[in-house]
Design a protein that fits this description.
Blueprint lengths: L13 E6 L2 H12 L2 E6 L2 E5 L8 E6 L22 E4 L3 H11 L2 E2 L8 E5 L5 E5 L5
Parallel strand pairs: 1-4, 5-8
Antiparallel strand pairs: 2-3, 3-4, 6-7, 7-8
Length: about 130
């Protein structure tokens, strides 16, 4: 039987980000996304949407040796970005201002008019974007 005829049983449940302080970063994203804390341990936190609301859970793990990525990459030896989160918003300017008020930093390089690149408190790049066409 080919794998194409068997439905996969694997499902992506959570994206995990390393940080110097898992709790600080988890609470930043909980405020930004309106998520709630689902589980908390000394070096690990899981957040997600309220029950019944669609969305991907996020977890954060304390990694004392965490080094923030450089974005955009400038030199061959820079810490590379491993991933980034895209967050769709209705009002780009208002949500950018709110993200900055919550602790994000606006990136110096902005590649598109309908996207804002920001850095979370641990230095992970993330994008706020608005849908411009259906």
């Amino acid at each position: 039987m080919s794998s194409a005829s068997v439905p996969p049983s694997a499902r992506l449940s959570t994206v995990v980000l390393d940080a110097r302080d898992a709790h600080e970063l988890a609470h930043f994203y909980a405020r930004l996304l309106g998520y709630e804390v689902r589980a908390e341990e000394p070096h690990w936190v899981l957040i997600g949407p309220s029950d019944g609301v669609a969305g991907t859970a996020l977890a954060f793990e304390t990694e004392p040796a965490y080094v923030p990525p450089v974005w955009p990459t400038r030199n061959a030896g820079d810490q590379q970005m491993m991933l980034h989160l895209d967050v769709e918003v209705d009002d780009l300017e208002a949500e950018t201002a709110r993200a900055v008020a919550e602790g994000a930093t606006l990136a110096g390089h902005q590649p598109q008019a309908d996207v804002r690149v920001l850095f979370d408190p641990s230095g992970h790049p993330f994008c706020l974007w608005v849908r411009t066409s259906q």
